[in-house]
Each structure stands twice: as structure tokens, then as C-alpha cells.
């Protein structure tokens, strides 16, 4: 690969890394927005399910009432037939057939509403479970991110503190060395001054004149 090609590849790599870094930085915001939208969608689905449930109950009630009416008219047709009023019995039976058609239509709608409601209920439960799982993962990711930032900050501060402490120790060592050198110079100057003034010689002469002045054994014998 040419140098130009390598530069282009490197640039693409850096651009990709930068894009991923931006995406990662915005990831939590994006996820939170998606969770809000998902919750809104679930709320809308629950409203639709409630409407479906209401329609199912209405059809269930209608079927029950129609079946009751069919039973009542069937009994009336029997009575008319037993009384020899065949035209009335036929008219009642024809009305019963129409009611049965309506029962079948309402029953079909009831079954449809019920099946749709059950599917929606299952889908809503699955979606809520997924959102709860995602929410827990997001909370865990937030906690881990905060921990990582704290650890990085602590590591950086510790490194800086260690560097400052090392610098302070070095400065103290240099100060002690400089003080020792200055003390040595002062002592040498004092020694030289004593020699020049004869004070050192005078001290030696007095020691010869009083040899036992500082002798502990001699002092002890005088007690």
C-alpha cells in the first residue's frame, strides 16, 4: 500500500472512531428517547386493546340476549303450532332464523375481537418486558459509566498527587543538602576565626594549667 493509501486508511479509521465516539456519547440519550416512544406506543396499544375489549363485551352481551330471544320465540312458535295457528308459527320461525343469522354474525365478531385482544395482550406484555429489561441495562450502564469516570478521575488525581509529592520530596532533599553545605561552611569559618584570634590556643593552655578540672575521677576523690 502506498503512503497516500495508508494516510487515507488512517484518516478513515480516525473518522470512524470519532463517529463511534459521538454515537456512544449520544447513545443513552437516543435509548431514553426510544424508550419514551416505546412506552407511548404501548399506552396507545393499551387504549386500542381497551376499545377492542369493550366491543368484545358488547358482542358477547348481544349474542347472549339474541340467544335468549331465540329461546323465547321458539317457545312461542311451539305454542302457536299447538294451538293450530300455523301461519303465526311460520312467521315466528322465520324471525328466529333471522335472529340466528345475527347471532352468527355477532359471534364471529366476538371471536375476532377476542382473538385480536389476546394477541395484543401478549404483544403488550412482551414489549413491556423488553422495555423493563432495557431499562435495567440502561441503569446498569449509567452506574458503570459513573464508576468508570470516578475511577479515571481518581487515577488522574492520584497520578498528579504522586507527581507533586515526588517533586516536593526532591525539593526537600535539595534544601537539606544546601543547608548542610552552608552549615559546613559556617563551621569551617568559625574554626578559622578561632585560630586567627588565638582562642583555640588559649583553651589548650588553660587545659595544661588545670589538667584535672574536667577529670571526673579527680573530682570524685575531692568529695
Q: Topology of this protein?
A:
Blueprint: H1 3-82, H2 86-197, H3 199-209, H4 216-222
Q: Based on helices, strands and strand pairing, what is the structural class? A: mainly alpha
**Low-pLDDT segments:** none
Domain module tally = 1
Q: What's the main sheet like?
A: none
Radius of gyration, taken over Cα atoms and rounded to an integer in Å:
53 Å
Helix content: over 70%
Question: pLDDT average, as an integer?
Answer: 76
Q: Give the CA-based shape.
A: rod-shaped
Per DSSP, the total helix count is 4
Gap from first CA to last CA = 105 Å
Describe the fold and architecture.
Keywords: Coiled coil. It holds the Pfam family PspA_IM30. Residues 28-55, 117-192 form a coiled coil. Belongs to the PspA/Vipp/IM30 family. 94% of the residues lie in helices and 0% in strands. With 223 residues, it is mainly alpha-helical. The protein has one domain (3-161). α1 (3-82) packs antiparallel against α2. The longest helix is centred in the middle third of the chain and has 112 residues, at 86-197. The protein is rod-shaped and about 170 Å long.
Features:
223 residues; mainly alpha; 94% helix; 0% strand
Q: Would you summarize the structure shown here?
A:
This protein has 223 residues and is mainly α. It has helices at 3-82, 86-197, 199-209, 216-222. It contains four helices and no strands.
Amino acid at each position: 500500500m502506498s503512503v497516500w493509501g495508508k494516510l487515507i486508511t488512517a484518516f478513515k479509521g480516525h473518522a470512524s472512531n470519532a463517529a463511534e465516539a459521538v454515537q456512544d456519547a449520544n447513545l443513552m440519550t437516543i435509548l431514553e428517547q426510544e424508550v419514551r416512544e416505546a412506552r407511548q406506543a404501548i399506552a396507545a396499544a393499551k387504549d386500542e386493546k381497551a376499545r377492542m375489549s369493550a366491543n368484545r363485551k358488547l358482542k358477547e352481551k348481544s349474542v347472549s340476549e339474541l340467544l335468549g330471544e331465540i329461546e323465547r320465540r321458539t317457545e312461542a312458535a311451539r305454542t302457536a303450532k299447538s294451538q293450530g295457528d300455523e301461519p303465526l308459527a311460520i312467521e315466528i320461525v322465520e324471525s328466529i332464523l333471522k335472529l340466528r343469522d345475527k347471532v352468527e354474525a355477532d359471534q364471529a365478531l366476538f371471536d375476532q375481537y377476542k382473538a385480536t385482544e389476546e394477541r395484543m395482550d401478549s404483544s403488550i406484555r412482551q414489549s413491556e418486558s423488553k422495555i423493563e429489561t432495557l431499562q435495567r441495562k440502561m441503569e446498569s450502564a449509567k452506574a458503570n459509566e459513573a464508576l468508570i469516570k470516578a475511577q479515571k478521575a481518581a487515577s488522574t488525581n492520584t497520578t498528579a498527587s504522586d507527581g507533586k509529592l515526588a517533586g516536593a520530596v526532591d525539593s526537600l532533599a535539595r534544601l537539606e543538602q544546601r543547608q548542610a553545605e552552608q552549615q559546613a561552611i559556617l563551621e569551617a569559618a568559625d574554626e578559622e576565626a578561632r585560630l586567627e584570634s588565638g582562642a583555640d590556643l588559649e583553651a589548650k593552655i588553660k587545659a595544661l594549667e588545670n589538667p584535672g578540672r574536667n577529670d571526673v575521677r579527680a573530682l570524685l576523690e575531692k568529695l
